[in-house]
Specification:
The structure holds 3 protein chains of 3 kinds.
Chain A (H helix, E strand, L loop, with lengths): L1 H7 L4 H42 L3 H4 L14 H9 L2 H32 L3 H15 L2 H15 L5 H26 L2 H9 L4 H12 L1 H17 L2 H6 L7 H8 L4 H35 L5
Helix pairs in contact in A: 2-14, 4-14, 5-8, 5-11, 6-8, 8-11, 11-14, 13-14
Chain B lengths: L4 H23 L23 E6 L7 H11 L4 E5 L4 H12 L8 E5 L3 H7 L6 H7 L10 H6 L1 E2 L2 E2 L2 E13 H6 L8 H15 L5 E2 L8 H11 L16 H13 L12 H9 L5 E5 L3 H4 L11 E4 L15 E7 L8 H11 L2 H7 L4 E2 L13 H8 L11 H16 L5 H18 L1
Parallel strand pairs in B: 1-2, 1-3, 7-8
Antiparallel strand pairs in B: 3-10, 4-5, 6-8, 6-9, 6-10, 6-11
Chain C lengths: L2 H29 L2 E2 L7 E2 L3 H8 L1 H33 L5 H13 L2 H12 L6 H10 L9 H29 L3 H9 L4 H12 L1 H16 L5 H4 L11 H9 L7 H33 L1
Antiparallel strand pairs in C: 1-2
Helix pairs in contact in C: 1-13, 2-13, 3-7, 3-10, 4-7, 7-10, 8-9, 10-13, 12-13
Classes of the chains: A mainly alpha, B alpha/beta, C mainly alpha.
């Protein structure tokens, strides 16, 4: 290292900085890469451990001390999950709720975020602040009354009620994120489009949304994930006919060993598609977030 | 900007997966455990329009046979019985929710002696005496044990049709006991002596495991210890008994076991106690009988054949009863159900019929007399021996709120943060307040 | 933009938020002055619920613990999030793999992740971490019954769950730092430390503030992860405010909805107090712009 730098200093300034830096960076980045790989293994540890427990035969699945070899892996828990519970229905409920709430959250969130990004006055500051306060509300303070209200309206225990609740709960985050994306798009563009004869709403849908794809995608992924994993709201607002997977998983805990393994299997099945999405989408997430949200 | 290609592929894949899941949801015929259940006669009058009957019952190997039999036998033509898996805590929460107000989600609910008086007093569940009179011959209801019917009654009326009883059972490692020449203990002192021997020679560090979970079970254990001395939380007139002599002895008895149990025992619910036995980390466990059948199943643990069962000990020699609770489980009908209660009653009656009860052995101890002979299961002798030596405790609507109120203090006493005398005074004060508020 | 357009665009979203958040919130405030159970009309009892909550030492314990958790986790998340994101920013081909792997912790439903997490330290379910610790140090840690080990467990879990989100946000922020800025710092002879301290961090201040804000909000309402990870939370002083509400207003058939609502209202006030610096900052900004 020292030799490198010494040699480099004799070269002309511009390149002298660049070349050795790259080499130094290589070594540094290799250490960083190893550290990061370790971190990600650590972060995955609970997931890996669960995956192992679920694929072991029941009698050694949760043995103490842990059994790590000498058994035949089995998918029995997955088979039981599929055959003896209504898992397919819970998964469908979860997907329906997540998709419904994502679509609605975006449809109503996009215009609102756009409006907020285009009028920098006091009103929008207050509205954004309100959104912030809403985002921070303790769930119980809205969910328990929602339980009563949904019962009174006769929509308790429907995917509709749960999706509506989640749209509202996640709306503040949606607006915040989207507003920051809109703020990045120069205002001149709207004006140009409006001169071409678009109405404000037409312009929003024809010009802004295509431009905003990465932002909308990012917001959509987040809202989808929030809805997909929501536990408390689903616990309170659903019962037999619209139960979601996270709620189902917790009702399987604390019972018999085979049911516990099924709960683990359900957690795996719930997570795998989302992992697939996050592997595919992370690149766009980073790019999308970097364009917009971060200047918040 | 282009819509990224793999993202599009990913979304498409997800959509396909979702719709496949959606389609098969109806076709897969998923139904909790009911395929293997027994079919019995369930002969109600078919309603005119298609009907779903929602059944609320927690899953355990003792409750499941009754639930599954009912679901399988009574689902036909226009009527579908629907039972979703739920844990015990979930059932407690859902029961409260469904009984409140004019409409509820459930049409049949599982109840137990401890909560029946409270729900009955609030008018949440309906008395069943008229139906029993009407159908007693058809479903041979007279054979349901009168002691258990008593346990499901309030003010002389029957509010739950008993399906089974659960009592405390001692499970122990026969191989370890035999090797060390030990016998199943009959008092806490003997249990401690056995534990000391096992610690010294049997290589098990914490030989005793009990469900002392600080947010639920621990009060049941305390009540069982008090019952051993013939006293309950509330006396006949409803007065709390936490400063009684029995209460002090019970607390001291419980605390004397602490050195022989895992230091984290106050986080153990019954499944964790089962784990202790499955994994060989404990050699003795006392739990409700409904959890015992799991211990005898070889796919759960390699030690399944090494377990033996006995009646639980009394807290002290000469105490009138054993360290045990008798909990009767049964079916109740919520007042706010929109369905025909006559039909619902026939469903629950068929689930406790002779054939259904027979099929529930050995996992359960049915409420029908003469179902469990000493050879019915590995723990049948123990169960038959325990049931007569468990203190009968009449229900009281205040029992549940009082129990919830004293629990935090009880935990502090057990963990040594509050001493026994002071704790008893605090519990008494809390209990009086809770009983008055009820 | 004209006011009519603004209203039109804003209306659906605002309607949903008012209808589904404000209305329930009003009900919660109403309940907090009542003795009430589900499905029955309440009875007005004035400030009794508030005095009961405020005089209950359990509430005080819950507030203290929640604040402690929030402070520690927020600091840890900012530091770790920044470090990991910086490393990730310099990563080449491996980045998608590492990033994808890290996001798993975030996409698992919190309560499910907490159960998985508990299996690592619960010997009844294998407890692999305990074996590693025992092999390395000979110590047996009582993760569930001792206050501090349990706190460490809860902090570790919360950081584990929230780190991916903040890392993602910070990484996105780092990508927005113009390369010329770094180059300039290098030429000026800045060390790595001073570059981060005086160039990069000030540039992404906005992102860090955002991450900080979201983390504070999320940790203040910690609840479901405590059910598997701290089975006797209150007894060892590790109960969060939201778990306390759950306990009095929902769990075990408990129906003290009035008391639960009063605690909710009090915790909203607490949250607003915690967010006050951010709120003031935003208002100032708006004033400057207006």
């Amino acid at each position: 290292m020292i030799a490198d730098t010494a040699k480099a200093s004799t070269l002309p300034p511009r390149t002298s900085v660049k070349k050795p830096r790259r080499r130094r960076r290589n070594r540094g980045s290799r250490t960083a890469a190893v550290l990061l790989l370790l971190t990600s293994v650590l972060m995955l540890a609970p997931f890996i451990w669960t995956a192992l427990s679920v694929t072991k035969p029941t009698d050694v699945a949760f043995a103490n001390p842990p059994v790590l070899s000498g058994y035949t892996p089995t998918l029995q828990a997955f088979r039981d999950l599929w055959e003896t519970t209504y898992f397919a229905q819970y998964l469908t409920n979860t997907l329906v709720v997540a998709v419904m709430s994502t679509v609605v959250a975006l449809v109503i969130g996009i215009p609102a975020a756009y409006a907020l990004s285009r009028s920098p006055g006091y009103v929008s500051a207050i509205l954004l602040l309100l959104a912030l306060v809403f985002r921070s509300l303790p769930r119980f303070s809205v969910v328990l009354p929602m339980y009563e209200i949904s019962k009174a309206l006769g929509i308790y225990d429907t995917t509709f009620a749960l999706a509506a609740a989640l749209v509202a709960i996640n709306q503040p985050f949606t607006i915040w994120l989207l507003r920051n994306f809109f703020a990045e798009i120069p205002k001149e563009l709207d004006e140009a489009a409006m001169i071409d004869g678009c109405t404000r709403v037409g312009m929003l849908y024809r010009v802004m949304i295509p431009l905003m794809r990465p932002g909308i995608l990012t917001a959509g992924i987040f809202v989808f994930l929030f809805a997909f994993q929501e536990y408390l709201t689903a616990l309170v607002l659903t019962d037999t006919s619209s139960k979601t997977v996270p709620v189902f998983i917790t009702t399987q805990l604390g019972q018999t060993l085979p049911m516990l393994q099924q709960a683990g299997a359900a957690a795996m099945l719930l997570t795998l598609p989302v992992i697939a999405i996050s592997f595919i989408a992370q690149k766009y997430l980073v790019a999308g977030l970097s364009e917009g949200s971060v200047k918040g | 900007m282009q819509f990224p290609r793999h993202l599009r592929a990913g979304i498409a894949a997800l959509t396909i997966a979702a719709s496949v899941a959606g389609v098969t949801a109806c076709g897969a015929g998923s139904r909790t455990g009911a395929q293997n259940a027994t079919a019995v006669e369930c002969d109600y009058t078919m309603p005119k329009e298609s009907t779903t009957v929602n059944v609320l019952a927690y899953n355990s190997s003792a409750i499941d046979p009754f639930t599954n039999t009912m679901v399988k036998s009574c689902t036909r033509d226009k009527v579908t019985l629907k039972h979703d898996p739920i844990d015990f805590g979930g059932q407690v929460t859902k029961t409260t929710a469904t009984l409140a107000g004019d409409t509820g989600s459930y049409d049949i609910i599982e109840t137990y002696g401890f909560v029946v008086p409270g729900f009955a007093a609030n008018g949440g569940i309906v008395p069943l005496d008229d139906y029993v009179a009407k159908y007693k011959d058809k479903y041979k209801l007279d054979a349901l044990s009168s002691q258990m019917r008593e346990a499901m009654s309030y003010n002389g009326k029957l509010y739950g049709l008993p399906m089974q009883a659960q009592m405390f059972i001692l499970a122990y490692r026969k191989d370890v006991f035999d090797k060390l020449g030990l016998k199943p203990p009959t008092t806490f002192a003997e249990m401690i002596a056995a534990a000391q021997t096992i610690q010294a020679q049997g290589g098990i560090k914490y030989p005793i495991a009990l469900p002392w979970n600080a947010t639920a079970d621990i009060t049941t254990s305390y009540q069982a210890a008090m019952n051993s001395y013939g006293t309950d939380f509330l006396d006949r007139s409803g007065k709390p008994q936490f400063t009684s002599d029995a209460s002090r002895k019970a607390l001291e008895g419980l605390k004397s076991l602490l050195p022989y149990m895992d230091p984290q025992v106050t986080t153990f619910d019954q499944p964790k106690v089962q784990q202790q036995m499955f994994n060989g980390t404990a050699a003795m466990a006392i739990m409700f009988s409904g959890r015992m059948n799991d211990l005898t199943i070889p796919t759960n643990t390699k030690l399944a054949n090494d377990f033996a069962f006995a009646a639980p000990p009394a807290v002290a020699a000469g105490a009138p009863y054993l360290y045990s609770r008798l909990s009767v489980d049964g079916w109740s009908i919520p007042k706010n159900t929109k369905l025909d209660k006559d039909m619902l009653f026939q469903m629950i009656a068929s689930s406790v019929s002779e054939d259904a009860s027979k099929a529930a052995v050995p996992a359960a101890y049915p409420a029908r007399s003469g179902m469990v002979g000493d050879n019915s299961s590995k723990y049948a002798t123990a169960a038959n021996g325990t049931i007569g030596k468990t203190m009968p405790t009449p229900g009281n609507p205040a029992a549940a709120p009082v129990t919830n109120a004293i629990r935090p203090v009880l935990v502090q006493i057990i963990t040594g943060k509050v001493d026994v005398e002071a704790g008893m005074q605090q519990m008494q004060a809390l209990a009086e307040k809770a009983a008055a508020g009820n | 933009m004209r006011r009519r357009e603004f209203t039109l665009l804003m209306a659906p979203s605002l309607l949903v938020m008012v209808g589904l958040l404000v209305v329930p919130l009003v009900r919660t405030i109403q309940w907090s002055f009542q003795k009430v159970q589900y499905g029955t009309p309440g009875e007005f009892i004035g400030l009794k619920n508030y005095s009961q909550a405020l005089s209950d030492p359990r509430f005080g314990r819950a507030v203290l613990f929640t604040l402690l958790l929030t402070v520690v986790v927020t600091v840890a998340i900012l530091v770790l999030g920044y470090l990991v994101a910086t490393g990730m920013n310099g990563l080449g081909k491996l980045r998608p793999v590492v990033l994808g792997a890290m996001l798993v912790a975030y996409v698992l439903p919190n309560v499910v992740g907490a159960v998985s997490f508990s299996w690592l330290v619960d010997e009844n379910f294998g407890g692999v971490v305990n074996y590693v610790i025992h092999a390395l140090t000979g110590a047996d840690v009582l993760w569930f019954t001792e206050t501090w080990p349990n706190r460490i467990l809860l902090i570790a879990h919360t950081v584990w769950h929230l780190l991916p989100f903040s890392m993602l946000m910070i990484l996105a922020g780092l990508q927005g730092v113009p390369a010329e800025l770094r180059e300039a710092a290098k030429i000026d002879g800045a060390t790595a430390w001073t570059t981060h301290r005086y160039v990069i961090i000030p540039t992404i201040r906005g992102v860090l503030g955002f991450v900080c804000l979201i983390t504070i909000m999320d940790v203040l309402r910690t609840f479901d992860s405590l059910i598997p990870l701290s089975p006797q939370a209150d007894a060892i002083g590790n109960e969060s405010i939201m778990l306390y509400v759950f306990d009095v207003a929902f769990r075990n058939g408990s129906q003290q909805l009035g008391l639960g609502s009063a605690i909710n209202v009090l915790s909203i006030l607490l949250i607003l107090a915690c967010l006050f610096p951010f709120i003031r900052g935003l208002l100032k900004e708006a004033k400057a712009k207006a």
